[in-house]
Amino acid sequence: KNRRRDRSRCLTRLLTDISHVLASTFKDLYTKDIIGKDTLSNLIKSRSGRSSYHDKYVEELQQAHSEYSRRIKEADMLESHIIQARTRAATTESQDDKAEAWEKLQKLRDRHRFLRNPHFLPPNAQPGGMSLIHPRGVVVFVLSLFESSTDDPVPVFLAKPSVVVFTDYSVGHVYETTLELKNLTSSSRHVRVIPPTTSYFSIGLGRFPGEGGVVAPGMSCKYTVRFAPDSLADYEDFIVVQSQAEHLLVVPIAARRPPPILTLPRVLDCGYCLIGGVKFVEFLCQNVGLSSGTFCIIPKNQWPPAARTYFCEQPPFAISPSLFVLQPGEATVVEVVFFPTTAEKSCQVFTVVCDNCQVKDISIEGEGQLIALELVSVSGEKEPPVIGEVHDLTAEHFVRFSPCNPQSVQQKKLIIRNNVHLELPFHWQILKPNLLPLTGILAPCQDQEFLFTFSPKELKDYHSVCHLVLRDVPHSLYEHALQPVRTGSKVHDVIVMEIEVKGSTEPYQVLLEPYAVVIPGEIFICTTIHRQFKMWNHSKTFIFFHWERMNSSSHIIEVEPSTGRIEENECFDFDLIVTGGKPERVVTSLLCHIEHHHEPIALAVEVSFKGPIVTLSVPSVDFGLMRLGEQTQTTLLLTNTTQLEASWTIEDNQQDHQDAQVQWTNMTTYIQFVPFYLVIFIDAQVLVEPCRGVLPPLTSCSVDVFFRPRFCQQLETELELTVENGIGCHLSVRADVQSPQVCLMNCELFFSELYIGIPAKSAVTLFNQTLLPSHFRWMVCCSTIIILSPLNISGVNVAVHNLSTPDDESPSELLLDFGGNVVLKRAVTKQFLITNQSAVPAPFTIEAEYFHCHAAKPNTQSKKSCDCVLLCLLKEFVSSLLAHGKGAAFYVLPNTGTLGPFETQTVDVTAYTDMWGEYRDRLICKVGDLEPTLIPMQMTVKGCPLYFQMTGPRPDDQNQGPIIQFGTHVSGGDTVSRSLRINNPTMFDIRMDWETYNVDQDDRKLVDMVVAYGDAFPVKDTDGNEVMSGAIRLSDGSIQTAWERARTPGSEGTSTSPHSKTKKLFSVHIRPHVGNLSDYPYCITPQQIVIPAKSSSTVHVSFTPLTLSSSACEARCVGLALGFMSLDSKMAAFVLGKVGRAQGLDLEPVRVDLLAAVKPAMEEDDGVLEFHASVGDLLRPVVREFDVTQTLQLKNTLEMPLHFRLVTQHPFIVLRPQPRAQTSTSSNPPTGDSQSLVLQQQNSMQVKVAFHCSLPLLDHGDQTDEEVPPGVTLIHSTSGQRKLRFQQNLLIHYSNNSLQIVPLCAYLDLSTLRLSTHSVNFGFCYVGQMETVEVNLYSHGAHTYWKSVIGEPHVKINLPFVICCSEDREFRATVVIWSPLVKTPLTLQLQGAGSFDEMYRSS
């Protein structure tokens, strides 16, 4: 209560003080000081009329005070309204608080209300009148469909559910549910159920908890309620339950299927569409209800519906689908087609019917419109054409650009307004000037700004016409007065506006002042001088200039600034900067390039340069007589006599010091011997220190000249002093060098007798041949040591063991097997042990019997050698091992040595190969004087020794060749060839037979069985003819191993071995399937080639592109080539007991994968290129023929340019763009049939094809079927309209003689005239009085004009036909209706009779 009291007080204060509200609303009008009534009355009294200003002020003050009083009253009224509103708000808030408090109190009371147990009722209470679920005083309602009582009856039975509801049902099914009736009283009760009244619901027999149909207290009985619907509509009924109570219990029954709910709006707005056009609008229709439904859409005026189709139509609208089914949550797209025929708003009502008997109306709205464009404005001054100027009369607007220079830019803005509520796609047809944007969409009822850009490239006058073309406009929409068209018209591009544009150009006017710069006298090099000059621009616009710079190795001549901009009619000051590099006279010209000017401007420059001068203090140096090995020197003085810095160099200008005066007999050389090379080092003898330097202006420096002789000689040489970009001099140098010379008096020393262990002596005499003292010493050149030790070995016993066999095996069983799958050119090593079983040392040697080799193993343990050097040494080592040309070699390490007493050594045997085959050999082990021990060896080598130059050797995959990719080619193009160089590093000639296969991805074949008669690959000559193979081959197709041949008896007729040398008539080979054998599109030439030993040969792989069918867009060609190797040499194929090599089909071939792709030359728009024309267009003024054009898009998808020609036949022509716009209406532009076109790779080209319509084409409409040329067909429609159909092909001839066809089809609407009647009878007419009869003249197809001729001069005929008889007699006439587009004229017979009878006079 206290809180409520405080709140009321605050509310009262707020309601009484509202000054802040008025102050915030009226601001200074409420708060500022005012002039009171007393002040105003005083001013009125003081007004005497003498001062006009005072009187005017008092009068205005009275008006202001009146206005102030009025506003004060309004403010008081507003204040009272605000106070009342706040009071009402406070009262309402207080009442709400009271209601909220009362609701909370009621909830608290309800929590403490409990239900008492009926067992504890007092004895005087009625036992059967109490409910088991409600307390006393609680009202219980009995549900009844008919009436409700205001009393509070006690319920006897409770129905569960209280309402029987069926929700999900369908026609033809029966649904059941259970109704439970529960006794709510404290005593047993009888119950009776009355069934439903309708036939859709029924009830079964009850199920009671006891006998006799009695329901005990709290117990229930159950009934089965059945529902059998015959439709999906809603159903209602009820069940009546009778008991001992006064009131009946009514249980309602309802069958309500949740209706499907569609999201389709009631109004489908199709928007705007051009008349004659078709607009498709899609609306999403979703079933957001809980049940499925079948829906049908029909026009409202067609209810009830008949047989329905997929769509329903009510012009100008059509909707599809008209019948559809939607499950809950499922959606479909409803498509509405709008095809207006008049420029007005249309609305049609359609009815949506559901299978649950619900009906809903929807309306479809749309508005048809005509095209309306308006040129609003053009920027700049408007310059109309002058009198006599040539211009386009058909152009609606004229735009002229002011004269300018070439490559300059002028712009004008055009604003075009679209007065239609539709987006109109457009594009401009224009050559020059540039126009942006060229394509786009005109927004509905908005202005579009276009930018005209005039940028002339050449010096000439420009004249062009810009056509604004609207795309996808109905064909007959934009004709003359824009009349409505028929439904289903074709769309075309229409020119809606023509703007003529003109512009002219003038050349640039540039002048140099002065035109040449001449610098008098000579200037030092490396000195920069400046000269000034000017450039004037008298052009129409600014210019950009760029001066070239003369920056040679000697001089620099440049202009600053080198680039810039000069405004029109202004000059620019330049600075010419000249720097010399060497002394000479320079006469040159500097070029200034003016942007967009046809030739540069030249500035002539003439100047002379001079450089520094350096002199020597002495003209020559003489060192005199010298002894070899001594050194001498002298000092020279260099002086710079100029003001320039001098860079000098002193060097010997003689390249050869060994002239005729050199004493070669006394020359001493230093010689160093290396294997295979002799190198002689001769050092430089005359040295200058420093030999080069820089002298400042007018200064000197000293240099030292050293002479170190290397041999005896008379030196005469010359040193040259060179000054960079200056003048130098020469210095001659002389010297005489000698050396002491000593010789032996005796050149041989002979010892007559020598004894072992006793030294011997002898004397030698030296003679000094000069007077110079000489120092000498002896050196030992060589020494010889001879050791004689005869060896007598006896009792030697040596054992040989294989490391992989047990020790108890005998040496005869020893076998070195290197394996049956040795990879070619891969070394394989086997080891065995050799043991000296005696106490006597013994020497041994080990060597292969046939495949022996002699070479020292390279030293690969050196740390200083790099990997590449070691690899080269190893290759040279292997090559030396296989140099004998047998294909294999067994290298033994160690191959010789000495076995100490009871010593065991491990011997490594390494097999090196460069040829495939089955090899057999024996290892000969010879120890001392013992008999040699033979160890058999065997191995089978597989692989290919050949390799391709482009891939190099492949050690891991020797039979796999390169993958040749030919790329993508044009269908039916020329053959493409690739060269493959095959290297043969072996010592044998190898013949290869090539076969090409095509790989089909869908091929399911697994193996191939190849049957050969005789040789599978016989030897052929250069012409491809088979040569007798017996003369050059070992066997005819039969491949045997070496050991099988060795064991074959000598007589071929008696041998039964399968590998005998008997000639095989047939051979069968089974191999995996790799493809289909074919020489197209891949082919290898020559198919048989012999690759010489240690040489190479070249084969050519060619690919001929396939010719694709018209439906194919691309073909991928996958193929491979197999090269089968054979050996024609007898020694190469077989060596008895040593080697045997498989050939042909028995050997794994060399494989080369081939890949290529074939595409059509170009992609064009799919379908037939159609043209539509009307002969009525021939009736336009000055037009007797015209063209209907269509654009064809050609796209080159290849990686190469295409050369092609376009050819077609009359009446179709191929249009080519002209260099200037055509202003006349002539419609016969030249075709490009005879000219070759080029389409670059990955580019597209638009080709315009025209249908040429002329009057001679109308003759085909009256010709018979035999007279009509091929491709022309006359078509008659049911409405009487006639059309001519012309069918031809556009032929695309490619440079590779392939052909591509594009179908062409044109429809020409003909004119047909028809009269409603062929005769008119006026009957009797009163003389002098006119009678009128109307006759209808119908025109079908193209529009035309006509005229009529009558043959009776006394009858006047008009339209409508009128007769006016001048005499009392019968008149007859024939009216001939003639049209220039209809060959056969129409005739109308007229007849009537004149009479003076008054009965024929009409009122």
- Over all CA atoms, what is the radius of gyration? 61 Å
* Class computed from helices, strands and strand pairing: mainly beta
Count of alpha and pi helical runs: 8
Shape: extended
Largest sheet: 8 strands, mixed
- As a percent range, the share of helical residues equals under 10%
**Approximate strand percentage:** 35-45%
CA(first)-CA(last) distance: 106 Å
**Unreliable runs:** 1-5, 7-16, 118-130, 136-150, 478-488, 655-683, 783-795, 1030-1061, 1217-1233, 1351-1359
Number of strands: 93
Q: Averaged pLDDT, please?
A: 79
Would you write up a description of this structure?
This protein has 1403 residues and is mostly beta strands. It is 9% helix and 43% strand. The chain has eight helices and 93 strands. The strands form 23 sheets. Strands 53, 54, 56, 58, 60, 61, 73 and 74 form an eight-stranded mixed β-sheet that branches. Strands 63, 65, 68, 70, 72 and 75 form a six-stranded mixed β-sheet that branches. Strands 77, 79, 81, 83, 84 and 85 form a six-stranded mixed β-sheet that branches. A hairpin with a 6-residue loop joins strand 37 and strand 38 (601-610). The two termini are 106 Å apart. This is DLEC1 cilia and flagella associated protein. Keywords: Cell projection, Cilium, Cytoplasm. One of its GO terms (molecular function) is tubulin binding. It comes from Lates calcarifer (Barramundi).
